[in-house]
Amino acid sequence: MQSVNPATGEVLQRYQDHGPAEVEARLARAAATFPNYRRTSFAERSRWMARAGELLDAEKDRIGRLMTSEMGKTLKSAIAEAEKCAWVCRYYAEHAERFLADEPVETSASRSFVRHLPLGPVLAVMPWNFPFWQVFRFAAPALMAGNVGLLKHASNVPGCALEIEAIFRRAGFPEGAFQTLLVGSAAVAGVIADPRVRAVTLTGSEGAGVKVGEAAGRAIKKVVLELGGSDPFIVMPSADLDAAAKTAVTARVINNGQSCIAAKRFIVHERVYAEFERRLKAGLEALRVGDPAQDGVDVGPLATAQGVEDVERQVTESVRAGARLVTGGRRVPGRGWFYAPSALADIPPAAPAYREEVFGPVALLFKVRSADEAIALANDSVYGLGSSAWTNDPAERERFANELEAGATFVNAMVASDPRLPFGGVKHSGHGRELGPWGIREFVNVKAVSIQEPKAGAAHPGTHAAE
């Protein structure tokens, strides 16, 4: 396992994979830690989690440089990612106890309530594109609920994986409360099958989701899947076109275009299409591409050599199929895995860019004649993660909120994750939710408790039927 700088192709550091004996030791440690850890109070966990947030804030520059060197995001965005991780730690440190409080229920018993109890060791299979945020948005609620975590991170960010483990230990969490497994994808099914692992969550590609979902299904274990997206960005005639076009550029190239919730399909009403295309093209061409560690760089490299090859293939084959190249459409010469910010228009259904998720800085433009057509095209995808709609018409806003098939709809704003809001998708974008009270309740036993107090003078309380 090794870290490779995507801006140069240089190997930064090599790591020894965890073999079967080390994996077994870490599984055993997780299982041994859980019985005592689950009995810790919310106050104790809150102190540790708040301390983790303090460490992230205090060391955000160093942590940001680690992310930038391993996967190529701009240093500014990497530092912001560390800050966001600190936010989610503080959020769950403050709110977890309330989110998981007993819920009274009126029944014929003396007292009935719902209690939320931890499940045990939870395996997280995480991607490289947001190497800290994806992990912390799982780990903060899972650990605050009383579970212990096992992280199988992407193989190209081992330094980030080990650093996250170290942060939790330094924050005061017991040694076995959060551990990294430096293993390849071939080892995941075996870890899921292990009876000591009680649940699994994955953020990643659709293909990875299928494999993890199958393994979890065979083991009859709870699974949360946050998979790919081909998010629509709809622009209607009443929209503030200047704001929409500027946001569109940012929404497409965020994280060098490598985000599940990046806007990918720009569905624009014909009355404003020509001007929107002109502004989007100018915005993309004004971006500075280069070393992500340098100030003023807007777009860094793609994270892997395979990633840039995939984007190049999708664009080339789409143009061959009849798509019009608006701008870009080429690798950036020199070292590293850079691809120029690009846009395609007039994309036929047979083109790869029409159906596949393009995981790089490539905008896809579509012209429509009505809100009906915009909604139909937006929903004509196997994915349903995020969606953005730009309109100042109240009726259109209501329609987009109700009819877009996605886990989130942002009106006159770009899609973003927020600790206070549920995050997840529908269709092939997965199932289950992260963040907010919804996320912390994914990995708990929602347990019904009913207590019948003895009646005065009765030696033995009566019993109810079994079911």
Automatic annotation (TrEMBL):
GO molecular function, one term: succinate-semialdehyde dehydrogenase (NAD+) activity
Record InterPro entries: Ald_DH/histidinol_DH, Ald_DH_C, Ald_DH_CS_CYS, Ald_DH_N, Aldehyde_DH_dom, ALDH_GabD1-like, GABD/Sad-like
Top-level taxon of the source organism: Bacteria
Keyword Signal among UniProt keywords: no
Keywords, comma-separated and alphabetical: NADP, Oxidoreductase
PROSITE patterns documented for this protein: ALDEHYDE_DEHYDR_CYS (PS00070)
Domain Aldehyde dehydrogenase residues, every copy: 2-449
Keyword Protein transport part of the UniProt annotation: no
Family stated for the protein in its record: Belongs to the aldehyde dehydrogenase family.
Protein name per its UniProtKB record: Succinate-semialdehyde dehydrogenase
Organism: Anaeromyxobacter diazotrophicus
